[in-house]
Every structure is written in C-alpha cells, then in structure tokens.
C-alpha cells in the first residue's frame, strides 16, 4: 500500500502550502467527511498512535487511521481533487474544491480523458 496524488491534487497542495505553510493529510474513515482525505496545517493536527504514515503527496505527509489501513492495505490510494465543497475543516474547502480518495482497484479515469485513453 502507498499513496500518490494526481497532478491536479499536487497543484492544489502546492497552492495550499504556499498560503498555509507545511501541511498534513489525514484520512480517518467513518461516515461523512471522515471518509475523505483532510488537509490541515501540520502543526494543528495531532497524529494518533494507531495512525499509519502511508507516504507523502506533494511533499506533505499522508496518514490514515489504523482501522482504515486494515481495509485499504491491499491497494495504493490515489488522491485526486474535484469541484465541490468538502469539510469546512479541510484547507481546500474555501477553494470550492475537495480532495477525494480513489484506489487502483476502484480507479475511475478523469472525465476530461478521451475514451481511448480510459
């Protein structure tokens, strides 16, 4: 298992880092926004003892809750960004965008990709 970001997600990460400084991503699982990757200023989020560091995206650490790790350990996560508001606590929310997790097992090509490339 690991984590990568799409070019669109990396561009947004770079912009958020420019505005807010070092970042940290966390995906906890559960219902509502807890199942989406959340982006925080790095010094404003405390990583738990059961959280697993999957790697870095855009040079920023990405953690996942231990229970979620057990469910997703068989695939690599792909962090993307789409239009629409996510959680009010995640730094991208005011941008009218939200981070989204995809996996290699459930990957959906971007809509702007021609059918032959899908």
Automatic annotation (TrEMBL):
Top-rank taxon, per record: Bacteria
Species lineage: Bacteria, Pseudomonadati, Pseudomonadota, Gammaproteobacteria, Chromatiales
Organism: Spiribacter curvatus
A Pfam family reported for this protein in Swiss-Prot or TrEMBL: DUF779
Protein name as it appears in the record: Acetaldehyde dehydrogenase
InterPro entries associated with the record: DUF779
């Amino acid at each position: 298992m690991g984590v990568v970001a799409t070019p669109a997600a990396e561009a947004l990460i770079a912009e958020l880092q420019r505005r807010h400084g070092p970042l940290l991503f966390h995906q906890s699982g559960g219902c509502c926004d807890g199942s989406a990757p959340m982006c925080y200023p790095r010094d404003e989020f405390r990583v738990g003892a059961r959280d697993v560091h999957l790697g870095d995206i855009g040079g920023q650490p990405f953690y996942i809750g231990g229970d979620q790790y057990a469910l997703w350990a068989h695939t690599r996560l792909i962090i993307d960004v789409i239009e629409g508001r996510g959680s009010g606590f995640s730094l991208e929310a005011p941008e009218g965008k939200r981070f989204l997790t995809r996996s290699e097992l459930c990957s959906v090509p971007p809509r702007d990709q021609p059918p032959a490339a899908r």
